[in-house]
Amino acid sequence: MAALGWLTPRRRSATARSVLAGEASAEAARKDVSEQEPQFPVRGDELAAAFFDLDNTVMQGAALFHFGRGLYKRKFFETRDLARFAWQQAWFRLAGVEDPEHMQEARDSALSIVKGHRVSELQSIGEEIYDEYMAERIWPGTRALAEAHLDAGQRVWLVTAAPVEIAQVIARRLGLTGALGTVAESVDGVYTGKLVGEPLHGPAKAEAVRALATAEGLDLSRCAAYSDSHNDIPMLSLVGHPYAINPDAKLRRHARELDWRLRDYRTGRKAAKVGIPAAAGVGAVAGGTAAAIALHRRRR
Length: 300
Known about the structure:
Elements: H1 16-34, E1 49-52, H2 63-73, H3 79-95, H4 100-114, H5 119-134, H6 140-151, E2 155-163, H7 164-173, E3 178-182, E4 184-187, E5 190-195, H8 203-216, E6 224-227, H9 233-238, E7 241-245, H10 249-258, E8 261-263, H11 285-299
Helix pairs in contact: 2-5, 2-11, 3-11, 4-11, 5-7
């Protein structure tokens, strides 16, 4: 039987070095668990919510560009509008600045398109255009982020410079809580061709989020915001959990400096921006429409 002794484990007393090694390993394991990121979003936190920019954050390209394609298809524009819209689009692209005079001219042109139409008509058309042009352009990764907030019992809003009617259609189709967007004036359900206030762009987004948070009793330090554009830094800076999604160069740099989280769902060296420059804001409604018209005419 002695010959089989090698099959039986030998009993050895632990040395000081082995004890030290065991304790260090256990401590490292506990430290790894403690340093993992806390659960986010936090389930059941009723004081938290999430705010998502739309263009190039939730949707590939600009919502206004896709909406313009749909409106042109439905003959909302006449041929004589093309040259005027094309010039305004060219100005935004070449100048790359928000010249107040040109911004006002572009806004007036865009609002003239819907003047006299019923709000219900645009809402109905928006449903159709979503199915035709927008549904297939939703970023799956960003949608998953929004759904994570919803699954945690939190509310989720879109925040966009696009008309609120478009934003509400998209939010409803994605199962989100609602949307903040630019409001066009209407009387008795008919568009007047004027805005209520200014476009929801840049600092205005931050003010809208702040106002909604106050009305809904939210704690912004527990909230999250997501955007691709440096123009939305004021909104991102409001919340405790800012995310840069498919960020432009300025936002990427800013996010890295402040150690914000980044997510990029684009493929290739750089995702092409479809439609209009972010700096143009809602004033580029006409520019996006011009691009849609030009694209449509080239494909005919």
